Fold this sequence. Notes:
Layout: E1 23-24, E2 30-32, E3 35-36, H1 37-44, E4 48-51, H2 53-70, E5 74-79, H3 86-94, E6 98-101, H4 104-112, E7 120-122, H5 129-138, E8 142-145, H6 148-157, E9 162-169, E10 191-192, H7 197-207, E11 211-217, H8 227-241, E12 248-250, H9 268-282, E13 288-291, H10 295-298, E14 302-314, E15 318-323, H11 332-336, E16 343-344, E17 354-359, E18 368-375, E19 383-387, E20 408-412, E21 415-420, H12 425-429
Parallel strand pairs: 4-20, 5-6, 5-13, 6-7, 7-8, 8-9, 9-10, 9-11, 11-12, 12-13, 15-17
Antiparallel strand pairs: 1-2, 2-3, 4-14, 14-15, 14-19, 16-19, 17-18, 20-21
Helix pairs in contact: 2-9, 6-7, 8-9
The structure holds ligand LLP.
Amino acid sequence: MSRTSVTTGDPVTGSSAYPLGSSVGPDGHVIVGGCDLVAVAREFGTPAYVYAPADIRSRARAYLGALRARGIDSEVLFASKAAPLTAIYRVCREEGLSVDVASGGELHMALAAGFEPARIYMHGNNKSAAELRMAFAAGIGCIVVDSLDEIESADWLADREQDVLIRLTPGVAAPTHAFVRTGEIDSKFGFAIDGGQADEAVAAVGRSRNLRLAGFHAHLGSQIYELDTYVRAIEVLAAFCAPHEPRVMNVGGGLGIAYTSGDRPPSIAEYVDLKVDALTRCFDPLPRILLEPGRSLVGNAGVTLYTIGTVKEIPGVRTYVAVDGGMSDNLRPMLYGSEYEALIASRADRPASVTTTVAGKHCESGDILVRDVGLAEPRPGDILVTPATGAYGYAMASNYNGIPRPPVVFCDRGRATAVVRRETYADLTARDVDDG
Ligand code: LLP
């Protein structure tokens, strides 16, 4: 695996970790969205999340184009939990995507970004009455119902007819981390097809006053490369769903991305074709097909910039490079053991001379961002960049150790603009209630 050059992500081949169009300048600096990342770090400080929105646009077009080429009635939903940023909702809306929201907060952001309510789908295994009321008041297109209790409460709270999808678990275990598998029978999500729960859900929606069954939904899990899994799941789903003649089938998201330049995920086109082939085989007539990608839209569009604070060599053991962020801005290595790569943003053209372990600044030994990565003569003050942090990084950020959350910077055609400012120390105390 090359650690010294930037290889750009490509929605066609599916390979590589950096945003499309990234490069290394003649001075050895990494360039993303036409902006020199060292200059971006200087202007906005570190840590910082940097996105190339053109990368998101290109992947959105890859999804829409692949579906359009099949000439089928379809919709692509941005699974907004991957990057719940108003500016990214806006990019997705502008590209003609619909949106999946999994909470009142995500619904709030989708509406703030101007999403037409009819294009909003609401998920969640435990939607509160307040969230359901909010969804009804906004007039959202569809609620994905997840339990019998919810069918009852949604019916009771609805003040008009509401389209719903029933979330199903097909009983197919996706080959991915157990924390992000959702298609098994033993899941907190949805209704198992085996054992009659799904039949009960269809009957409950049928009995309801206000809910109208538009179709079904299933999402197997996330960061999946093995396309066969989707085919098996669609076959199981179809056996249950087709007799109900659904108007809509939402077959979820889950396409994996490249986290390191050695990773070779399937391309968006391959993934879409495979799902559409399976659906076309299994349904006649073919319902409206919904895909719900999160990571594969935004994951490779984002990188994170850090400043190296210390370089500590433990002779014969390892060299720790400590940066000014860590598990508060990227929890994925600690939660899932996810692998990342890293570069010194000002020396991307130089050989990776030192094998290092990139550690964060949090008070935990497990706060390790990247293990065994070769870096070019890392020194305090250098800017370190980790690619493929656009999905579930900002989304899962915290204030652990009182670290203000980083800003989000868009780099587009050579212009860098903050779309979310850095949190301040004042933000950390802003919600305190003075009970004195
Ligand atoms: N639809 C539903 C109902 C989902 O629950 C998810 C993700 C998606 C779509 C989008 O899946 P994607 O295309 O992004 O794989 N925090 C974890 C990932 C959690 C995924 C949650 N659900 C991680 O960082 O890997």
